[in-house]
Specification:
heterodimer, A: mainly alpha, 9 helices, 87% helix, B: alpha/beta, Rossmann fold, five-stranded parallel β-sheet, four-stranded antiparallel β-sheet, 30% helix
Chain lengths: 222, 225
């Protein structure tokens, strides 16, 4: 079981290493969108500080959406998804492996980039620390729920747009608690409450999304 | 048709298949034992691929059931997918990886120990010795098909389900595949295959199954457009 999971993970990471363009695009998207805001709304430190957490979180959400439609699509097209589903191991493990790889490839770089972009928004250091921690809890949610959405829309024409419409509402709790945590620490009310809720949401996604994704994959492949 | 001497491993009971509200076939029954080949025949769009996907368990039957070693395939996923290998229209080969890497990840999916020597030997046997370190993107259609066939061989499965295995292969490779199928059957394996090409399979017990419209004359099932 663990062997299968690690194999899927290693496979997807190898593929990502061979296709650097894909994840660099998502990362640059994140950097560009967040950098456009200071240019657009003007360099007022107080205003930037006010909107910073929200902008960073929205950009992170959209950046992860960019790559999601291809999570299963490429493997579906060349038939390797069928081969993976026809493995003795559970399809749930397949989804978990792919979601984990997606997070490592598309989520982690956002985490590493976030402190630099936080400075751009004049966020204090404690807020930046909370921002990174909220993204650490939040980006796996984006990958897990996204995997369920990608499996549901697999093989549909115009699946990308449908995926966005389907998944964005599900992302809103993560967005609210994530940005709320950073706001909380800047307002002096503390971030614990928001971060706990974000953690709970992560747990729920972890327990529910892979099963939904596995069931949808089987339907989509029929 | 020779009467099976051995107990059937794969059996299909009362299977029906419907696609887009069109009935492709119904009340299909057959059994397949060790060393037997089932050649599924029928024109385009008659349900050959649908039947094969039902046999793999990729799609679920509306009525009827597919059994492996006397238990329904959905109930014995573990054993069935250890013993079954499927080669579909698509090869299941990643363009970014070279043939050896492709085979390694393929093996890992089935929790098998991977031996590089064995994989390289298999690829060489299928005439790919010059492309071992090329990404599969650089390979031709037929060469990719050969990589997929290598994966099939390495799977070490009892039952092969082959959907048009000869597509894109040259005459030499077709003879090679015929040899592989014969060897597999002689070693006690089972094969279910669809093909529009004539196969030279001497000394093999072959069952023919005509899918769909019975009016389709045998052997003239090419493109109609």
């Amino acid at each position: 079981m663990g062997h299968f999971f690690l194999n899927v993970l290693r496979r997807d990471l190898t593929l990502a290493a061979r296709r650097r363009g894909d994840w660099l695009t998502a990362l640059f998207f994140f950097v560009m969108v967040t950098s456009l805001f200071p240019l657009g709304v003007g360099p007022e430190p107080e205003l930037l500080k006010r909107i910073g957490p929200g902008v960073l979180w929205v950009a992170a959400t959209l950046a992860s959406l960019l790559s999601l439609s291809r999570l299963f699509e490429d493997d579906h097209r060349d038939g390797s998804l069928e081969q993976m589903v026809l493995s003795p191991a559970s399809t749930v493990l397949l989804v978990l492996g792919k979601a984990m790889a997606h997070w490592l490839v598309y989520g982690m770089p956002l985490l590493l980039m976030a402190p630099v972009l936080g400075i751009q928004f004049n966020l204090p250091w404690d807020a930046i620390a909370v921002l990174v921690f909220s993204l650490l809890l939040g980006t796996p949610i984006l990958s897990l729920l996204g995997a369920a959405g990608a499996a549901l829309t697999l093989g549909l024409r115009g699946g990308g747009v449908l995926l966005t419409l389907l998944i964005l509402p599900l992302y809103t709790p993560a967005l609210i608690f994530g940005a709320g945590a950073v706001d909380g620490v800047m307002a002096g009310t503390g971030a614990e409450a928001h971060l706990s809720l974000l953690g709970a949401f992560l747990l729920v996604s972890f327990l529910v999304a892979p099963w939904i994704a596995a069931a949808s994959l089987r339907v989509s492949l029929e | 048709m020779t009467a099976p001497l051995l107990a059937p491993l794969l059996s299909v009971h009362d299977l029906a298949c419907e696609r887009s509200e069109r009935l492709l076939f119904k009340r299909m029954n057959f059994t397949l034992a060790s060393g037997q080949l089932l050649l599924v025949q029928g024109g385009n769009g008659q349900g050959k691929t649908s039947l094969l996907r039902l046999l793999t368990g990729l799609s679920r039957p509306d009525t009827g059931e597919v059994r492996w070693r006397d238990s329904q395939i959905a109930r014995c996923r573990d054993t069935y997918y250890q013993e079954m290998a499927y080669l579909g229209h698509t090869n299941g080969i990643k363009d970014e990886l070279n043939p050896v890497e492709n085979l390694r990840f393929n093996d890992g999916l089935h929790s098998r120990a991977f031996e590089t020597d064995q994989a390289v030997a298999t690829l060489k046997r299928l005439g790919l010795s010059r492309c071992l370190d090329l990404p599969c993107r650089a390979l031709s259609f037929g060469q990719r098909r050969r990589v997929a066939l290598s994966a099939l061989l390495l799977a070490n499965a009892k039952l092969w389900i082959l959907d048009e295995p000869l597509t894109g292969l040259d005459a030499h490779a077709v003879a090679l595949v015929e040899g592989l199928i014969r060897n597999h059957l002689h070693a006690g394996g089972l094969v279910v295959a669809t093909t529009h090409q004539a196969l030279n399979l001497e000394g093999v017990s072959v069952q023919h199954l005509l899918v769909g419209d019975v009016a389709t004359p045998e052997g003239t099932s090419g493109e109609t457009h």
